[in-house]
Task: structure prediction
Amino acid sequence: MVRFWKGSGRQSVIRYAKPTTVDEALALLGEDRWRILAGGTDFYPAQGAKPFRDNVLDINGLAELRGIAEAGEHWRIGARTTWTDIVRHPLPAAFDALKAAAREVGSVQIQNVASVAGNLCNASPAADGVPALLALDADVELRSVDATRHLPLDAFILGNRCTALQPGEMVTAIRVPKRSAAGASAFVKLGARRYLVISIAMAAARLVVENGAVAEAAIAVGSCSAVARRLAGVEAALRGRPIDEALADAVLSAPFDELSPIADVRGSAEYREQAAREIVVRAVRGAVGLDQGKVAA
Ligand SMILES: Cc1cc2nc3c(=O)[nH]c(=O)nc-3n(C[C@H](O)[C@H](O)[C@H](O)COP(=O)(O)OP(=O)(O)OC[C@H]3O[C@@H](n4cnc5c(N)ncnc54)[C@H](O)[C@@H]3O)c2cc1C
Result:
């Protein structure tokens, strides 16, 4: 069932729909232009007090998009899955960074309604969910009435507030390959205070340890470039290293070439660059059990 409401703006009539199946939602997306409403925690602040000009497609009736499941070679996170769902669902240790990031998104009230997919689609450089999902090699499932496609997360988020979402498409799931759900992970967020804060920088580290040494490393940093980035130089520097105190030196002397931090009210570019190195060290140490934690600026 699709519920419509027609509101009269000054220049045009807008539509509101709350479909109850994905097929209905895709049919609507195929026939008109819509703005998708999930938890609304980015949607409404962006709207502010402006009158609505676009049709609103409310996806909160799509129960089939909520939840986490194993599907073949992937873990599948439905597009309407909330941060609280992530925290509560039993998942392998490789997802610990994502769970830690989930606990850092705003407050518990925000986490109860806000979706993982909304965090990706909003494409803020400070989106806390992105580094952990990059470290898990996640991809994004995009569906339209005609087709389904999958894009690696780094090909989905193209820039600040810019994604590869095409007219007529919606994100239906985020997928994590089971082969990447290996090892253990940790997330460190640097903010100006302990709670309810936009990240100055954040880091996720996922490491697979075999025979006392790093067999695989996946490291990502957010808020230090237009889009959160994997750090290939750091990953290469960690591979093969024994699990000991010298891991920190390997991180600190590795190239962080992918980052291009900006200066803003939350910190200078130089501060972000140094802070990124420190929080990557802490995330790496947390992932291999040397220590854990979050730092305050
Ligand atoms: C007080 C407060 C604190 C916050 N703190 C943090 C924080 O600490 N860290 C952080 O990362 N974020 C934070 N946020 C931002 C926000 O809560 C998250 O980004 C959240 O995950 C967005 O999810 P949502 O379901 O509310 O998305 P919505 O607001 O509903 O949508 C966000 C955008 O994504 C689009 N969209 C949503 N779902 C889909 C879909 N399935 N397909 C296509 N497009 C879609 C919408 O059209 C919209 O453009 C905060 C927000 C508030 C209000």
